[in-house]
Design goal:
Layout (H helix, E strand, L loop, with lengths): L13 E2 L9 H12 L6 E6 L2 E7 L7 E2 L4 H14 L9 H4 L13 H5 L22 H10 L3 H13 L25 E2 L1 H12 L3 E2 L2 E2 L3 H7 L5 H4 L7 E2 L5 E3 L5 E3 L11 E5 L3 E6 L4 E5 L8 H13 L3
Parallel strand pairs: 1-3
Antiparallel strand pairs: 2-3, 2-13, 4-5, 6-7, 8-11, 9-10, 11-12, 12-13
Helix pairs in contact: 1-10, 2-5
Length: 314
């Protein structure tokens, strides 16, 4: 059920002074300044209760940026839509949909293992191996088989149109799209406000206004670590801050419990190469998006800076 205090944007977002939603304007200004002090930022957007409470751009706010692995969050959404339609289950075996598939996908791998980055070992779920290529790109083929629609048409009809997203998903002449950024097609270019729409859909557990886009049960499943002992910081193509098990990052940082000790365990993130970041804080009905081209080796530092800035507001 939707929280009646949340606004869902139409063609444009509603804006609100931070004080009207219990946050000090000076704190928003400082948090945005702290994040924009990170090298090579394109901008920052903050949304509370579905309303923009702060945004700044080093480039015009309509400028679209290559989002790289934030595309994975869109892929998880397409699967969620298919689950709602009853045409895919997360426990479906990949080989039942694609009898001839890449040899690096385990024979017993299920859709959930591909989404969780644990399909590349035998048995599936035995290890977490991050990928942005052929294993992940098996999903569009399954969507095509299950829906009978070209993947790009599936996106346009069931996700782009309902949410009012402004970007096209690059496809080939046959209508195939890729979820992993390592493939033959161009990477999606989207705006901060586009990504905040995606974040809002997941924040509201699959609802957009009064319409169910994904079942809440799927959202809950996707935002819970499938195998906490191999990586509690990863769900279904979303990064998590779960306190369960151990966290492992693509930069090889690891530890027990939550990735960010100063943040809530139900926070989740979409992360793309070179500083593409969305942080979602369910406890405060809050979304922060900041895109840019920060050097990848600085990832640990800039993510920590962003998380501290976000939590300085509450």
């Amino acid at each position: 059920m939707d929280d009646l205090t949340t606004r869902f944007p139409g063609e444009a977002w509603e804006t609100c002074e931070p004080e009207g939603l219990g946050i000090k304007a000076k704190d928003v200004d400082k948090a945005m300044s702290d994040i924009l002090a990170i090298p090579e930022r394109a901008g920052i957007l903050m949304v509370k209760d579905g309303r923009i409470i702060g945004e700044r751009y080093e480039r015009p706010d309509t400028t679209k940026t290559h989002i790289y692995s934030i595309t994975k969050g869109l892929g998880a959404t397409l699967v969620g839509i298919a689950v709602r339609q009853g045409i895919i289950r997360t426990t479906d075996r990949i080989r039942d949909w694609l009898p001839v598939h890449h040899p690096d996908i385990a024979p017993d791998a299920e859709v959930r293992h591909v989404l969780n980055m644990s399909a590349g070992t035998e048995p599936a779920g035995n290890a977490w191996r991050y990928n942005s290529n052929y294993i992940l790109n098996s999903i569009p083929g399954i969507l095509w088989q299950a829906s009978g629609e070209r993947p790009v048409d599936f996106y346009n009809k069931y996700l782009k149109a309902p949410l009012g997203l402004s970007f096209d998903w690059p496809s080939n002449d046959r209508g195939w799209i890729q979820i992993g950024s390592q493939g033959p097609l161009p990477v999606i270019e989207a705006s901060h406000q586009d990504l905040a729409r995606l974040g809002l859909l997941w924040l509201r557990r699959g609802m957009w206004g009064g319409v169910e886009i994904m079942p809440s049960s799927y959202v809950d499943e996707a935002l819970t670590p499938t195998y906490p002992h191999i990586n509690g910081a990863y769900g279904y193509l979303w990064w998590l801050n779960s306190a369960e098990g151990n966290y492992v990052t693509t930069g090889k940082a690891s530890g027990a419990g939550s990735w960010f000790a100063n943040a809530a365990p139900d926070d989740f993130m979409a992360l793309g190469a070179r500083g593409k970041v969305m942080i979602v804080v369910p406890q405060h009905n809050f979304i922060m998006v900041s895109l840019g081209d920060t050097a990848q080796e600085q990832a640990g530092n800039y993510l920590s800076t962003m998380m501290r800035a976000v939590y300085s507001l509450f």
